Amino acid sequence: MRTISAKKMLYLVLAAGMLYVCSMLMTPINEERRQQQLTHNEPLENAPPELELATKVLGGFRGIIADVLWLRAQKMMTDGRYFEMVQLHDWIAYLEPHIADIWAYSGWNMAYNISVEMKTPEERWYWVKKGIEHLRDKGIQWNKDCAQLYWELGWIYSHKIGASVDYQHRFYKKELALEMWDVLGDETPDIKAFAKAPKTREGLLRDELVREYVKEFSDENVDILGEDFFALSKNPDAFTEEAARLFNDEAYKEPKKKIETYLRAKRLREECKLDPETMVKIMYGDPDTTLELEKRLQGYGELDWRLPEAHALYWGKKSLEVATEEDFEPNFDRLVLTSLEQSFYRGKLIMNREARVVTTDGNYKFAGKLDTMYEYLFDKYRNLPQIQSFRDRHRNFLVDVMTLYYTYDMMPECLGYFRQAKRLYGGQDIDFQLTPEEFILKKILVRFRDQPSLQYLHTYVQGLITRSLTLLAAGDYPSADRYLKLARKVHHEHNMQEIIVTEEEGNPERKMLPPFEEMLDVAKGSAFLGQVPAFTAPVMQKRLQEALELTDAQVEKYRNDLKTIIEERVRRLQEAEEQE
Amino acid sequence: MLSKIGAIARNTISQAIRMKVAFILILFLLILLPSLPYLLESDGTQRGQVQLVFTYGMLISSFLLSMLTIFLSCSVLSSEIRERQIFILDSKPVARWQVLVGKWLGVMAIDAVLLLFMAVAMYVVVVYLARPGRENATEKDQALLASEVLVARRTITPEKPEIDEEEVERRYQHMRQEASPEDFTEEQAKRKIRSDILQEEMVVKVREPKAWDFQLNPDPEYRDIDFSICFSFRDAKYKPDLKFRGQWVIKNPGMRTWLPVEQGDYASNRNHYIRIPSDFIDESGRMTVAFINFGKPDEETGELEYRSVLFSLKDGVQILYRGGGFEMNYVRALILILCRLAFLAILGIMASTFLSFPVASLFSLTVYAFGCAAGYVSDILGKGVFATFTTEAIRNLPVKSLAHRLFYEVFLYVFPNLSEFNPITSLTTGMMIEWLDVCEAIIILVVAYGGVAAVLGYIIFNRRELAGTHRM
Description:
The structure holds two protein chains of two kinds. Chain A is mainly alpha-helical. Chain A is built from 27 helices and two strands. A two-stranded antiparallel sheet of chain A has the order 1-2. The model of chain A has no long low-confidence stretch (mean pLDDT 84). In chain B, the strands form three sheets. In chain B, strands 3, 6, 7, 9 and 10 form a five-stranded antiparallel beta sheet that branches. In chain B, β9 (286-297) and β10 form a beta hairpin. In chain B, α7 (165-178) crosses α8 (186-200), α9 (326-352) crosses α10 and α10 (357-382) packs across α12 (399-414). Chain B starts with a helix and ends in a 9-residue tail after the last helix. The model of chain B has no long low-confidence stretch (mean pLDDT 85). Chains A and B meet through α3, α4 and α6 of A and α3 and β7 of B.
């Protein structure tokens, strides 16, 4: 029998010693793991195979690989190379699917940091959407109890798309509206019907009329309960004549509507991850809610799901449903306030799908909800120092709501808010002695009085005129007329005041706006030249021409006149530059 | 002598063929490379997809080839020793260095063939993905592919401004009054002042445009595709990741006014690229680029804060222009990869002269991993994450930090920085790999590091008693 050599004995002793030292380190390491929540390892639900593979096969090594990928992602960012970022963020998140911060950071990084590095609006929107999809379709699906991720998603909708911090926010709003319209199918979709629609194919096929209709299509090899429904509605020529006839057959109107509702509800659930039942609760009130805010509001109102604020509210509410910490509520309140403000200030969507033109307008229907929200905030945060900023915001809101009702010629409502404002803030503002109309016009003008240049007011009046023209092209003649009237009033009021104020100083024209008719002609010329975003599409220019009943020659004259004005301005600028 | 080495090399090749590893690798690459476009998600553009597939295709292929080289080189000698076949070879009139060289040449021959195969496969995939008729191909993408990916671009830095020596003298005199003359020599002080003046030239204050002059190659051959301005700056107060609003304008000698190129909000500490149309450069090749800093926009209100930015002297503003064709760049990149493989093959063979196959493989893999990480470590040291290794630091820092620093400094000297000789990033972003880079790789990796490993291997193998008995 061989004897164990002294060398081997030494190795054995060394190995045992090292093992002992390692075991001593285990206690602090385990404590650190517990503190950093690194042992959180609940099984994943609905995880795709690649995720199962990454988490199970790689075991403890996945942390190291995630670190390496993270470093690479950071390097790529610094170098300004973004083509790998979607893939790298996916891999990192797949390797650590339970760490919410990774999902949150990746989504935010794509939607905020990378998007702004892109040159074109299309490229920017691609990254904003990627950020949303990353959180919504992956992060949240595998971390359904993580309030942070829902809230981050809601914030991207509210802040990145809804607010105006990104100068391409209008493009994002347009793309979102067009995409959502494609899913919802109608300007005023019946969300309640979506909520009531069967959730499964089998459930839908219990309806005898639907069954019969489906059978007719199956004879034509058309799967009307699948993608073929939307394909048929868009391009019937791609199908047989009989299929196209069946699709438009008035006799089958009822089953067709049921199928459409079922399919759209399905798309909402699967593509947008929006549950129609929750959407209904958000809009019309949740009977089971325990939230004081929701009890007071009785629903957030008739939200337009093509707009970002509706989505922000949805994901904000979801975050609160799963939140375990109480301090999540102020976050939610903030999101609700912003969303209701956005709904009030521009919750009315004016769009033309074919021309891909989207613009928004104030929606007075949200005035009451927003007012209730402020009341709730005053009660809830009355002891906080920020309460004064809420009060200032509320006072401005009351002025705006009066202006909006005034613009829409809804004087009883305007008067109601005027009385409320006078009651709450009348003591601090002498202008409440004026009539409501005088008050509103004064407040509009006061905003621009402190601006360094007349250009601000000029742009405002020009904006009102352009909005009027946009509404005219969209076919909303009454609203168009109201905006034009308001523009005229503001213009008149300012010039009258300036004549009085500056007459004594001489040269009153210096601070006066150009004649209103000239401003109107410039606005029309800009529209016909496609210089205004709403009129870049020729179809919108054509609609405006029809609405104004102009001949081609007159339109051309508007264009030429504006070109002459622009050329004149450029010439003057060049002269000034050369002199400099 | 050559026939002996050749015979050993041939024997090594047949040994490798018998192992079938090469065939498995070829099969794997044949399946993997065409599948990459379906497995990877890019930024949705054709250019992005080409770059992504190209990058990962090259990375995976290069990694697999490195692994194969390590295992093959460790196995060819150690298996002969383990199975005692080496006795036959050792009894023949073949010098031991000839055995080592033969083995190395055998491994390199296999590597060269596999690399060639990989290169052709990758090229076919890239050309296929970059073709104009593809589904998501747009004219813009095609132009970007031609000007930024399938090309070899060089960078050019702006002409340095002339330094006013009177100003240098004035500052030097002022410095002498402020500090004790023993603290610095005149030459040191003036060098520092000149550097400061140059750096001040790179500060762009709000609404005070700064211009840089460039002299490009006027040859029409280099002016046939679009140029790019590559720039990065930092906040003058050194706060990271801020956004600044700015505008770039350009001018050539034939123009009276500036041409605005782009306006935007640019993040600090990050590279940005702006395209300039190729027809902008006139026959003189001269161009002036200027940046107007509008300040830092507030995230909520959008109001602009007065804040200066600072461009790096070395690479703050650069022009990227066409320096050569993609194909030759690809060839140079392949030679660089081959240099890395050559080093790994020498390392593996050296390790197997005194270690068994598993230990030699582990050893080589460790060197490979450390070599790949060397670039990262070097970056950290360069960025000052660790304390600067100065006398003052040695005096003030705790021993643990000094030990860390020392470890990493030694680490960088001992292990070759393989990431420095990694051509993939340059290749896939259309940057020129110069012949000089290739020569450097040959000298540093193959001749210097490889040479040391080869000499060590030879000494060990020469002294080793192959038929020696071991006390068990």
